Amino acid sequence: MAKVDKSLPLEYQTEQSRLNILGFWIFLGAEVVLFATLFAAYGSLKDNFAGGPTPAELFKLKDVMIETLLLLTSSFTCGIAIWYMRRQNLKGLLTWLIITLALGAGFVFVEINEFIHYVHEGATMQTSAFLSSFFVLLGTHGLHVSLGIGWAILIIIQLIKHGLTPTTARKTFIISLYWHFLDVVWIFIFTFVYLARMVF
Amino acid sequence: MAKNHENEKFPISHIAGFIVSLLLTFAAVAAKKYTDLPMITVMWIIGALAVIQAILQLFMFMHLTEGEGKVQTINIIYAFFCAIVVAGGTIWVMTSGHVHY
Amino acid sequence: MHIKWDDIVITGDPLILSAQIGITLTMLAIVVGVTYFKKWQYLWDEWITTVDHKKIGIMYIIVAVLMFFRGGVDGLMMKYQTAAPEMDFLDAQHYNEVFTTHGVIMILFMAMPALIGLMNVVIPLQIGARDVAFPQLNALSFWLTFSGAMLFNISFVIGGSPDAGWTSYFPLAGKEFTPGVGNNFYAIALQIAGIGTLMTGINFIVTILKMRTKGMTLMKMPMFTWTSLITNIIIVFAFPILTVALALMTFDRLFGTHFFTISGGGNAMLWNNLFWLWGHPEVYIVILPAFGMFSEIIATFSRKRLFGYNSMIISIVGIAILSMVVWVHHFYTMGSGPVVNSVFSITTMLIAIPTGVKIFNWLFTMRKGRIQFTTAMLWSLAFIPTFTIGGVTGVMLAMAAADYQYHNTLFLVAHFHYVLIPGVVYAVFAGFYYWWPKMFGYALNERLGKWHFWLFNIGFNVTFMPMFFLGLKGAVRRSYTFSAESGFAPLFMLSAIGSLILAAGFAVLVYNIYYSTRYADRKISTDPWDARTLEWHTASPVQPYNFAITPEVKALDAFWYMKKNNEGLVLKEEELEEIHMPSNSWLPIYMCVVFGVVGFFLVFEWFIPAAICSLGIFVGLIIRSFDYDEGYHIKLDVIKKTERAWRGEK
């Protein structure tokens, strides 16, 4: 299928690319509902502490702000990477993509440390319904980020190997959509899980 | 709102999106930390700020309206409708009647 | 967690032992037979690695027919056990396992594959396209569904079946009350199959929106395509809910979390809520394609355009939106209070309206038409009054206050069988008789078809009508026996006799498939029903590339228009070009095996092997990411030869 339209940005040029990008947006719609269901579970169980640790005892604003800033900045740098891609600048694209991944890895590192800290405080996912739903919601998001980093590394290898073609541009664009989406989800996690129950 | 990013010399819309996102984030923190408003008001404020930031990022970062923009936009709107029904509906059902403990 | 060998290989039960032996022998027979006839290469090249939507569709249908047999035997066993008071054919534990597998198999491994199979075969053809948007993903969808089905079915002979109902309510379905692996099978097998279905949803939305042939605007699409589009939208937005619900169940059972447990602050009602948030859209996922099929068949065999096209579309969109806001009607009695119950009563009753509109449109389509009583049409005609019975009993159940009386009685069971069987199963049968010639190049025998129809239809009503009255008398569902004093015995016996007639009907279908495959005339028209839509403007069976030149659509009922105006029917060979086709792929079957193995290890809680084997999933994804295969082209001479063969020499 090569109905090529050279007037469009590189990632949209072939027919198959247009199908793939639309398909991925629809997949993101499904992911919105997936996370909404995790939020639904969290929202129902968030006050069931079973005598165990509560948000007031656990959540620290500093860690959460660091995670937020890392992820938000990585979403910004990802946007810059695509900006370079649209100007056929492979070097710029790769540079900013790698920065994005470094920030993402930083996010995962801080989050894992946060979880280890909670476990040391006696707050595991087996402790209470609140903690079960907290860890599964946050863990699902963190797992998505980690998988995204792995996926992006695969894309970087292909960009180096094949250069910037309509196919590699499309793959890069799709993973950028995925990455931005994870930050959009984080906005809601930050707001409704952490900030709403933060005690200063 | 399909800004033509092709001719920009400088990624101004991305930078603007980033800065506004930061401001919205700090505003939410401020609303919780530095005001004495009742909890329910704070929830509405930070909730609204979250939705605004999400919409902002959908347009500024994710190019929602490019390509099959119309289909993609309807898709995201329906997804958020379903999200509200699922999350809000669950919380409503689970906290009504004598089931809530 | 150490699962003992005794738990894996079940001993001491004659039924299960005979199944174990039977399965082993059958598998051996298949391996020996395929080897003897030297068909491994053929199977591998033509079916196992195919990405052709038509073949994938046929494989789905084969799975559905086999699963219908298994689910049907479950049903017969239940009917036999309840034919008389205090029967001891099945004890309570086994009865629980039987009704659980009956439900899961019929809905998830019979109805869904049958409908998705028919969608796979027909939709790209109806929209004048050469394939779906993502052919390899399509194959993966099938093989994941197959993987989930096989994992679920194996529970009968290894480990023990799930036993908490197809709805798997907590706390019964949790570790505290049902230790062992049965419900692990439920959580994990359904999860794997669900991933496949979600991918189908995405695939068909993009296909229908982006790959329609020239001139086919949304408002010129056939009704089956419309209902499939809406169905796939519901799939995309409902299946993630199931994914999460099953994941939370898995965490509770395998990792000791407290989502639905009694202790630790868990809430069992949350399961019901999440399950039905998915479960209700699910029943619309199965009914909407069925409605679409009926629309096609009724129009074709009334020789009239479908009445009220616009109102049909508004109705199915309305049903799709409403289907997301009625789910609490499945658990009115769980205590969410009068406000919640009232709101959901109203939304549930509202959904009857667009459905009613559709019934009237079908009736008006038939009015002043010239009805042809083919088997496909007979199923459609029987559907209308029988489904309506199911529908109006649904409105009765919708009233929350009244439902306190009906809930979990056989009245409820009769209601949903009266909507599912006439709605979905009759449509699947009708679809088989209608599209069989297009899929295989010969038709199912009409005489046998009529025996199939009458036996099944009569059997169905004799089986399920008594259950309304049993329910009103107080007979509860999911109960392995009843007392002689209850007075239920005569109606239970009548129902059991009905199930035998039902089984006979199914047997006739199976015989029909065998008989027609062996004896039916292969020289039939490619348009045997003088139909209205584009899938009939192809060879039978359909050529691999579907259309040598994609047709141009001028009106609704595009093929009918072409025939009546003698337009676009002749192939202009000068306009032919080489046709690009996607390559076959071994990745889907590989993923099927890997997911199956990982799933099996998770079911038995052997976490280290599961973790190691899950690396295989990542390997598969990496291979896919680095796959730059561009497919191949079908040459002009092959196209010309194929086209001349079915069109007749020019």
From TrEMBL, chain B:
Q: Which reaction does it catalyse?
A: 2 a quinol + O2 = 2 a quinone + 2 H2O
Give the GO terms filed under biological process for this record.
aerobic electron transport chain; ATP synthesis coupled electron transport; electron transport coupled proton transport
Give this protein's Gene Ontology molecular function annotations: cytochrome bo3 ubiquinol oxidase activity; oxidoreductase activity, acting on diphenols and related substances as donors, oxygen as acceptor; proton transmembrane transporter activity
Q: Which residues cross the membrane?
A: 12-31, 43-64, 76-95
Q: Which GO terms describe its cellular component?
A: cytochrome o ubiquinol oxidase complex; plasma membrane
Its Enzyme Commission number?
A: 1.10.3.-
Annotated compartments = Cell membrane
| InterPro entries from the UniProt entry | Cyt_c_oxidase_su4_prok, Cytochrome_c_oxidase_bac_sub4, QoxD
Domain of life from the UniProt record: Bacteria
Instruction: Specify the protein's topology with respect to the membrane.
Output: Multi-pass membrane protein
Q: Which UniProt keywords apply?
A: Cell membrane, Membrane, Oxidoreductase, Transmembrane, Transmembrane helix
- Indicate the family of this protein: Belongs to the cytochrome c oxidase bacterial subunit 4 family.
Q: Which PANTHER family match?
A: CYTOCHROME BO(3) UBIQUINOL OXIDASE SUBUNIT 4 (PTHR36835:SF1)
Q: What is the role of this chain?
A: Catalyzes quinol oxidation with the concomitant reduction of oxygen to water.
Q: What name does UniProt use for this protein?
A: Quinol oxidase subunit 4
Species: Niallia alba
